[in-house]
Amino acid sequence: MAQLPHLKGLNRLFYALRHPSLRLVFTVPMLIQLVSAVGLVGYLSFLNGQRAVQDLASQLRGELSARIEKELHGYFGEPHAINRINATAFAYGELDVNEATSGENLLFQQMKIYPTIAFVYCGSAQSGEFFGVLRSPDTGQLQLSYGNASNKFLRDYYSLDVRGSRQHFLYKADKRYDSRERPWFKAAMTTEGPAWTDVYIAFTTGLPNVTASLPVYDRWGKELLGVCATDVVLPEEFRSFLKTLEIGKSGQAFVLDRSGNLISSSTDEPLMISAEGKEPRFLKALNSRNPLVQQSTQFLQDRYWRLDNIQRPLRLNFKLNGERQFLEVLPFSDGYGLDWLIVVVVPESDFMAQINANNRMTAALCAGALAIAILVGIFLTRRVTEPIVKLNAAVKEIANGRWERRVDIERIDEVGELAASFNSMASKLQESFQTLEAQKNAFARFFPPEYLKFFDKQSVTDIDLGDHVSKEMTVMFSDIRRFTSLAEKMAPDETFDFINGYLQDISPEIRSHNGFVVKFLGDGVMAIFPDRVEDALDACIAQFQRMREFNYARQALGGMPIDVGIGLHFGHLMVGMVGEYNRMQGDALSDTVNLAARLEGLTKLFGVSLIVSEPVLAKVENCDRYQVRFLARTIVKGRTEPIAIYEVLDAEPEAARYRKLQTLSEFELGLKEYFSHNLSAAQTCFQNVLAADPSDATAKLYLERINQTITQEIPDPWDGVWSFSQKR
């Protein structure tokens, strides 16, 4: 009999309850706990929410209104007090505005006492003379500025010492300044008493200012002497005060004038708008990027039509994006012309301290329930997935190169079979990679990894016949002197052991100084240094040190010491792969290579250890780092142009280097006389060198050549160049 559809559904439900899936087992208990905890605590939070909002909103309104009003009266009362002091000093001659001979000390002390003041000054009604002390907008340094007939009303600026006395002239303004034409002067004249100017861009600082000014009359109150004024930089100074207010978590405070200009704000939004070719102007609050500022102003204009209609403190609220906002509006007027609106707006959510406390309780309960659910889930999951996790970790370790990794899972199910198969696979992989690693290491001995880096290749398989790099580099040739006669005294296997021992000692110094060996030439080495010539020089000096250690070990075993010559040249060369597709090797090709080989050969003739060409020394950044001695200008075989060669004394043994340094001045004098055709004088100099250092083969060589030249007619022209038609 066929079952009804609803019976089939019930059967499937009962089967799911009796044989739950992992997803059902892990998910349902956790959801039940979380829903229960959130529902209970959320209900309790809702009961207390509205009462908490009303209490906190009422507290904030009264406190912020009182603080803002008190601070503003103090902030904008100081400039008028300063003006009254300066007006008295002006009237009694203590402040010399017309001639600028005295008075800066008084203004200096006022600027020190009131750090929020930007400029204190007075202007004369006589001819527009000006005298004041300002705070530099760039450095904060106090400076004296005055303009009168003595400087053609082009204001001079002076620095002030710690007592306020003028010190050094700083600079002169490039525009004539007449105090009588300035807004602050006219404002005081219009009101005939204390006054504020409109907000304007300061002439000296380029910043938006508001200025308090006061007319100054003589002691009898009849004749107008001038006007004293004090500048206050509005945006930054007043903004710093607004930012210190604790306006909830996200509330804002800002100041508007009656035209809707944003005078200051607790946000970081720029208050000035600068258009190319136009004067900067204040940002309209309706155009603010801050939604609280923009929407609060829009709400006030919609409700009162004009901001001029707001004449008393207001406590309002409106909605922004569906959330209620509390709004506090405070008109501010100091009796001298300031007429602004202070606006404080705070989202309702900032007042919900009690609700947030309940939410934290809810979060804590949810976290507890979640933690319990996670612990249960971890326990159940671990029983099921632990073998799989072990296999996964073992696979990752093998991928990172730990081929010996195995898993120990004693189970007879499919997971156990998978573990056994994994161990078998790992053993075979280990054998295969060990074989490949051995082959790789063996191949690297024939193809050094430095080549891969030099050719910018990732693998040896990327190298092709003809790959090369063409650039200016330093090339080095070294060779063991008299190696043939030395090898005749050794058996073939001893010769190979000797050569390999020597090369194993010096080759690491080449690599450690950013160079690499291009090829070994029996007892010789050709290497290049792609980066700096200092690398090559340091590597050669280090090789000679290792050679001396090598000789010391040989002599200790009864062997003969060896002597090595090295030549260095810098120039353009190509380093690349030559040969055929079935057999290729690295090589370096160019005239630079040939010349370096010739320089190595000249070390035997001149009896020196290390010869470098003039291009090498020209590339050394700090020539004082090395001790060098000029040897000669030579034309080697295969070249037609002479090249200057030098001996690097740092490569010599310490005793030999000391002797050559002691005779260096005499040696250089001999060279000078030699190239000046003064052969007799040069002969004397080189004889003196040999008398002090009989082992100096170069001096001996010059003396022999001078003796030969004296017996012959000196060729005309004489250049002293040594020409070699054979390899050395």
The residue-averaged pLDDT reads 80
CATH topology of the largest domain: Alpha-Beta Plaits
Q: What's the total count of β strands?
A: 25
Low-confidence stretches: none
CATH homologous superfamily assignment of the largest domain: Nucleotide cyclase, GGDEF domain
Number of helices: 18
Portion of residues in beta strands equals: 15-25%
Largest sheet: 9 strands, antiparallel
Roughly how much helix do the residues carry, as a percent range? 40-55%
Kindly name the structural category: alpha+beta
**Global morphology:** flat
End-to-end Cα distance, whole Å, is 113 Å
Number of domains: 5
The CATH architecture of the largest domain would be: 2-Layer Sandwich
CATH class of the largest domain: Alpha Beta
- Radius of gyration, taken over Cα atoms and rounded to an integer in Å: 47 Å
Description:
With 728 residues, this protein is α+β, with helices and mostly antiparallel strands. The protein has 5 domains: 93-232, Beta-Lactamase, CATH 3.30.450.20; 246-351, Beta-Lactamase (2-Layer Sandwich), CATH 3.30.450; 396-445; 449-652, 2-Layer Sandwich (Alpha-Beta Plaits); 654-720, no CATH class. The protein has 18 helices and 25 strands. Strands 1, 2, 3, 4, 5, 6, 7, 8 and 9 form a 9-stranded antiparallel β-sheet that branches. Strands 17, 18, 19, 20, 21, 22, 23, 24 and 25 form a 9-stranded mixed β-sheet that branches. β20 (564-580) and β21 (583-589) form a beta hairpin. α17 (679-692) runs antiparallel to α18 (697-710). The chain is flat and about 115 Å long. The chain starts with a helix and ends in a 5-residue tail after the last strand.
